[in-house]
Design a protein that fits this description.
9-stranded mixed beta sheet; about 15% strand; alpha/beta; single chain; TIM Barrel
């Protein structure tokens, strides 16, 4: 619907009722946390090659902020192109927090944390500087997710208040289930590929008091199937579509909060 990880995309996510917006966090050469999915600029940035190609970790914030983060979308998806997308920038994490913390909730991933030693401390510091609190156990204001258990544990040492989500790479449901007792010792839930979700996996996770948030689901039939199985949240590029699926999907028992929508 709009160039990923830009204010244009997040504005639409809020407009269409996303419960959370996903922020993939990388760090610049001079220590600024920025919101971009890839560890490199090549796919989504355009500009002077010396500034707008290569690894985020090797560029200063000034270099990255000189890049156009929207023109690639217009070229790749001409049917969705808009003039205002050209010239969008890679946002700083602090600016995203300022713009959206009062409008929606946040689902933050430390991307490739082994490339950014100390990024967990940087993230905790940005939270303090921007008065970002974890919310309540029943309705967290922020989730922290990572494929790296070590990164999650480092963040937990800094602040025990924020719920953690252990992301899982492609693996069988039985392999995921085998990890649940360990995951439960430090995390509040798991983020799994939609293809790896089964009713048995959800039952096992819930028995271990773990949430199940599959990614990334943009198909109506898949949304409805996952809702029927009882997932607790869904990552999607189409929050409007998922909102409609939730309205048409199974009723939740009284007292349950229902499925959350996480816009990617």
């Amino acid at each position: 619907m709009a160039p990923e990880h830009t204010t244009a995309a997040y504005d639409r996510a809020v407009q269409f009722g996303a419960d959370y917006i996903e922020l993939d966090v990388q760090r610049t050469k001079d220590g600024v946390l920025v919101v971009i999915h890839d560890a490199t600029l090549d796919r989504t940035a355009r500009g002077v090659p010396a500034d707008c190609t290569g690894r985020v970790a090797e560029k200063t914030i000034a270099q990255i902020e000189s890049c156009d983060a929207g023109t690639w979308f217009n070229a790749t998806y001409p049917a969705l192109a808009r003039p205002e997308f050209a010239g969008l920038r890679v946002p700083r994490l602090a600016d995203v927090l300022t713009r959206y913390a009062g409008a929606t909730k946040l689902y933050i991933e430390t991307k490739e944390p082994e490339s950014y030693p100390g990024i967990e401390s940087d993230l905790a510091a940005v939270f303090r500087q921007n008065a970002i609190s974890p919310g309540t156990a029943a309705l967290p204001r922020v989730f922290i997710q990572s494929f790296s258990k070590a990164s999650l544990l480092r963040f937990k040492e800094l602040d025990t208040g924020f719920p953690l989500i252990q992301l899982m790479s492609a693996m069988s449901p039985s392999a995921i289930i085998a990890q649940l007792p360990d995951v439960r010792t430090y995390a509040a839930g798991i983020g799994v590929r939609k293809a790896d979700v089964t009713a048995g996996l959800i039952q096992s996770a819930h028995a271990a008091c773990l949430l199940v948030h599959p990614y990334t689901v943009n198909d109506d039939h898949e949304m409805l199937s996952l809702l029927e199985m009882g997932v607790d949240g869904i990552f999607t590029d189409r929050p409007d579509q998922l909102r409609d699926a939730i309205a048409r999907g199974p009723d939740r028992p009284a007292g349950e909060s229902g499925c959350i929508v996480v816009a990617r």
